Structure formats: C-alpha cells, structure tokens
Amino acid sequence: MTVRLQTEPFDLGAEVARLTDGRSDVGAVVTFMGVCRDRTDSGAELVALTLEHYPGMVEDELSRIEAEARARWSLADALVIHRHGRILAGEPIVLVVTLAPHRAAAFEAAEFLMDYLKTSAPFWKQEETADGRSWVAAKATDDAAADRWKK
Amino acid sequence: MTVRLQTEPFDLGAEVARLTDGRSDVGAVVTFMGVCRDRTDSGAELVALTLEHYPGMVEDELSRIEAEARARWSLADALVIHRHGRILAGEPIVLVVTLAPHRAAAFEAAEFLMDYLKTSAPFWKQEETADGRSWVAAKATDDAAADRWKK
Amino acid sequence: MKLLYFAWVRERVGRAEEEAEAPAGVSTVAELIEWLRGRGPEYEHAFEAGPAIRAAIDKRHARADAPIAGAREIAFFPPMTGG
Amino acid sequence: MKLLYFAWVRERVGRAEEEAEAPAGVSTVAELIEWLRGRGPEYEHAFEAGPAIRAAIDKRHARADAPIAGAREIAFFPPMTGG
After folding, report:
1. Could you name the domain of life of the organism this protein comes from (chains C, D) (predicted)?
2. Angle at D72 between CA D71 and CA D77, to 5 degrees
C-alpha cells in the first residue's frame, strides 16, 4: 500500500507491472488515471494546470483515505500517486490502482479513493488560459459522489 | 473503439499509451484487467484456465456490448481485449479501457462492459488443477451485477 | 440446420457440431431441446439441466420461446463464464 | 499559533502564513474567522465567503465549531479541487 506525492509524471504501465509482477493471487486490477484536459469546463483553451497543496497535511490525508479504503474492502494492494506543481494539457495528474481477488471490490475501492481525493485531499487547481490564471471552483457533483460512501 | 480476441497476452501499459498518446481532450482513463488467479473459489491450487469460445458469435457479441456502452455514455474511446485458449495462473485474461471527459462515465462504462462480458460474451472457463479439469460454474452475483444496468 | 455445442454440453453430446432437421411441430428453442433429449442418453444427459442451457440462433442469444424457423445455425451452451 | 492560507484565500490575505494570538473569547474556528475579518479589508475579502472557507487544525480537517484551544497550526483554504 503506497501513497506518493510528486512533481514528475508517472508511467501507468510501469506502476501496474510493479504491483502485479510475481503475484498470482489477484483476480482484478482497476486503474484510474486523471489527465489534464486541453479545455476548461467553460470551453476555453487550457495551457496548463498548477496544483497547489498543503505540505504535510496532503501526505497525512492521502494515507488516511487509503487506510479507509483498506478497512472497507479486502484489497491485495493499492497505490495512489498525486502530482503537484505545473501540469501541461495532456499530462497525467493522478493515478489510483487497486488490486483485489474479485472485480467488485477493486472497482468500488478505486471510485471511493477518487471521490475522497477530490473532496478531502488538500489540493487546489489553478487554470492557465490565454486570459490568465484562475482558480478552479469545487463541484457539487464531487461532494455528492463522496457523500454516497457515508454510512 | 476496438474489440480484440486473441490467444497471446497483452500489455496494459502499451495499450493505454496507444489510446491516450497525442490526445488531450480526455480527463479520465479507467482500466480493468482480469487476471488468472492461482486458486479456485474452493481454494484448490489452479495451474491454468482454458477458455473455450464460440468463434464468430464472440466477436459479434463483444462489438454489441461495446456499442451499447458507447450509446449509454459519452466515451472518447474504448478498448476490449479478451483472450482465449490456455492461460496460466498470474497471466491476464481480459482488459477493458474507457476514456471519457470525466470520471463517472469512464468508471460506469468500464463496469458495464465487464458485467456484460461476464454474462453475455460466449466464453467458458475450464479450470486445471492437480485433480484434473472442470468447468467453472456461472455465478449468480455476475447475473445480479449485469441486471443493475437494465432500464 | 447446423447444431453447435459448447463446453460441457459439447462434452456430454460427444460432438461439437452436426447437421439436423427437426420434424414438423418443433418450432421453438424449447421444443428443439425436447426433441433432442429424445435422441439418446447422451442428449438426455446434456440437456437434463433444462432451462439452465442457453441457446443462440445464428450467433445471437435466443430465449427458450424463440422461433427456430429459418435458422441456419443453433448453438447450445452452459451459462457463460468469460471475463 | 501559526496561521496558514492556501489558494485564493492566500492571495486575498496577501501572505501564506503568519503568527497570531487570538484574544480571549475566541475559542472556535468560526470565532477565529470572525476575529480575522476584523483585522483589515484583505482579511474581510478573504473570508467574506464565510462557511465556504474550509479549515484544518494541526493538518486535520476541522469544522466551524471545532475548538482551537491548544492548536499549533490552523490553515484556511477554499474547497479542495484535487484529483
């Protein structure tokens, strides 16, 4: 079980290979990769995102979210990588990988991890367009997605 | 949009790279990889699975399932690879990749594709253990998972 | 028409495919299964699971009450276990 | 205690962090925000969104009614937009 905060891009294939190589007790591997789109939600051309974070808290929060996922589902392994700093359009931002005996747990845990990353990990995105920079507003749909996991 | 039936293993990282390279209109990439476990559900050591299929129908059915996913969700792209023949413990069996602007569509479409592959694509798994070979029984939980998509 | 068998249905029937002409009055998948069961103990054994046996007409899933008129190829198999 | 500001809260306050001692009677996150708003127009602007501003006490999410007694570090920031 690993959480990683980094500025450099990651390689999805290499990360999955590292997690799965040499083990044959895992029937299901789910990955989610979030990528920087070249358009803002309002349709303007996006050059890059800059992700600000709260050092110290972000590592704690990623670990708490990942521990919560392990408590809820029987996972063979899990990985969360989140980048910060300036990220160009087309580059990956976040990677979640879950390994489980069966697919339901792998899918649910990956969705849970993403929903909580979106609403609870202390990151803030700033969009860079031809008009300058502006902070991305939080989405009510992300709060609603996270709420579905509350017992 | 691609469906592929093959005997040889596949490379998850290479497939995702091929789908995402050069495009920056996609915010979410979800992958599901099904892997041959080294134990049967009853706990016996599994050497290999052999997947029998119905040639001709299986390609049609994979295409139908994939077209249904595209009709339900706004996907930028999708890929389904399913192996047949003899598959050793630890080897991958099936790969589903979905690309969408946002994560909800990518996750839902990937789960839908897997649920329908399990219950509708004409494949039959035979398990190979020290005791010989036996056909895997269909699971009621797979039927229930597929039923949730019925409108 | 051509009949195809897969997985343990194939093993029990003892062949993967055969040509067959169903007699008049056999007009649905269910009736075809009933007729096949009367052809010998290997068919009786293959089809004894009754409704658990799935069918496809010309490579599309077909229900027990589906008409077989005009079918070129009918396949019988256990519930699928791919994925 | 140390106060930290992130994203547009940081930009509006005009600094990323500062030391501050809240007066007696300021005992919750909400009361601390009210006290900060009175310190000048930049704070008033930063905190005018009121309950939309999130807080963390010693690097853990804290609600508006959370007590601040004993806190070493309190951070204020907009709703998060990672992932």
Report:
1. Bacteria
2. 85
